[in-house]
């Protein structure tokens, strides 16, 4: 998700942003931040209700997990073209179209009578989310009246809150009905759409971007290396996110209890809080102190170990809960560090680079839920975690093999400007 139209301004770098800068913003900035919070909530919203959808719509776990696959696949395809689209119609119009699509498809999903209908509607939801998130940061920076660093802090805060609250809201509403989280998302996004429509002024049309710019960017060896690294990593990310509710529910049932949507939502709320904290606060410190490539290699190895732990402990309710939450800490670091590396490794425009990288990366996320369910059914409930560990080994291999193409990253701690760092966090967490 790339904020493709915003360029660094003098105010971005002149002084360090303060909390006062962050919270003294025009109403238009607050409207976008609210909509961004809800948009990021949508990523984890369906996680707690997957077992309920599976049970109540007579669907297999494999079918239920396709809600992630259709969403992420369309998001991936859209990400290759969002920068071009925004350059043609403008940031404000792109935001409004994205929000409108989410409202429509989330509302329709709440009325569905089969899991296949929801799978198809989630695809439209993914298109809307890609259009909105790809331009939200640019819109916030463009709408701020003061130093852009303050607006960026607000954006990062919205992102973190959304990632944490998504599973919790899904659990709370899902305990009423599996339909309720979809209705809640549609209502909240509609409020955000009206607020942006009323409060956000029209902006000058950004510079034209070729519709094939992101696809052509993959010819760059450094970007291609990082995209391949991200494909295998994102497979593991969404194995943890999309598949884990099912072994978690099974482990609870084996103990004679029921986890339910609320319990799953609580676990992934903890996961989201950890992910938000490390992506916003810990990852930037690590990458500056030890460098981006060492941070990536170390974190990938630790996540692989965690996946092996889930393979062995998938029948332990306590073990799964602890490892999921710890996983949030590691995934937050990895998300931000990997996207920062993309921005530093090439001389391509960062909007084009991050669009290309995001498009390829989300394809890995789309594949994981489609593979995990059938694999578990054919073997054992722990096998998808073992496969995820192997894909992380492949991710490390891609990074090591292609490291010669990453000379621009160097060995010294690197420094992104505030806006670039916010974009890195947004692209990383908007998985």
UniProtKB/TrEMBL annotation:
Membrane among keywords: yes
Keyword annotations from UniProtKB, A to Z: Membrane, Transmembrane, Transmembrane helix
Domain Major facilitator superfamily (MFS) profile: 28-406
Listed InterPro entries: MFS (IPR011701), MFS_dom (IPR020846), MFS_trans_sf (IPR036259), Tet-R_TetA/multi-R_MdtG-like (IPR001958), YfmO-like (IPR053200)
Alphabetical list of Pfam families matching this protein: MFS_1
Gene3D superfamilies in UniProt: MFS general substrate transporter like domains
Cited SUPFAM superfamilies: MFS general substrate transporter
Record localization: Cell membrane
Keyword Methyltransferase: no
Transmembrane residue ranges: 28-46, 66-86, 93-111, 123-145, 152-176, 182-200, 221-243, 263-283, 290-313, 319-338, 359-377, 383-401
Topology with respect to the bilayer: Multi-pass membrane protein
Protein name per UniProt: MFS transporter
């Amino acid at each position: 998700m790339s904020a493709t139209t915003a360029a660094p301004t003098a105010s971005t770098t002149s002084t360090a942003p303060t909390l006062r800068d962050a919270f003294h913003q025009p109403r238009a900035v607050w409207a976008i931040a609210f909509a961004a919070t809800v948009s990021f909530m949508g990523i984890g919203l369906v996680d707690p209700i997957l077992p309920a959808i599976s049970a109540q719509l007579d669907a297999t776990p494999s079918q239920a997990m396709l809600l992630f696959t259709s969403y992420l696949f369309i998001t991936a395809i859209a990400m290759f073209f969002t920068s071009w689209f925004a350059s043609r119609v403008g940031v404000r119009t792109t935001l409004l179209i994205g929000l409108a699509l989410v409202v429509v498809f989330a509302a329709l999903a709440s009325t569905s009578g089969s899991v296949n209908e929801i799978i198809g509607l989630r695809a439209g939801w993914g298109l809307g989310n890609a259009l909105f998130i790809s331009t939200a940061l640019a819109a916030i920076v463009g709408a701020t009246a003061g130093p852009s660093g303050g607006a960026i802090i607000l954006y990062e805060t919205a992102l973190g809150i959304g990632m944490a609250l998504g599973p919790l809201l899904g659990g709370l509403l899902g305990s009423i009905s599996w339909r309720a989280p979809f209705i809640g998302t549609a209502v909240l996004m509609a409020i955000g759409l009206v607020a942006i429509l009323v409060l956000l002024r029209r902006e000058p049309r950004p510079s034209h971007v070729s519709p094939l710019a992101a696809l052509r960017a993959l010819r760059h060896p450094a970007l291609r290396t990082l995209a391949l690294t991200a494909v295998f990593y994102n497979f593991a990310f969404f194995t943890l996110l999309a598949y884990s509710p099912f072994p978690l529910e099974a482990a609870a049932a084996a103990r004679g209890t029921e986890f339910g949507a609320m319990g799953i939502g609580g676990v992934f709320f903890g996961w989201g809080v950890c992910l938000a904290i490390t992506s916003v606060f810990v990852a930037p410190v690590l990458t500056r102190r030890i460098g981006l490539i060492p941070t990536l290699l170390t974190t990938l190895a630790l996540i692989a170990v965690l996946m092996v732990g889930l393979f062995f402990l998938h029948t332990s309710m306590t073990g799964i809960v602890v490892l999921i939450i710890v996983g949030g800490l590691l995934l937050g670091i990895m998300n931000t560090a990997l996207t920062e590396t993309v921005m530093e490794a090439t001389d391509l425009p960062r909007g084009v680079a991050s669009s290309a990288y995001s498009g390829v990366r989300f394809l890995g996320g789309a594949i994981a839920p489609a593979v995990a369910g059938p694999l578990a059914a054919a073997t054992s409930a722990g096998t998808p975690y073992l496969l995820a560990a192997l894909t992380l080994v492949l991710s490390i291999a891609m990074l090591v093999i292609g490291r010669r193409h990453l000379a621009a990253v160097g060995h010294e701690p690197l420094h992104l400007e505030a806006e670039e760092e916010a974009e890195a966090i947004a692209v990383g967490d908007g998985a």
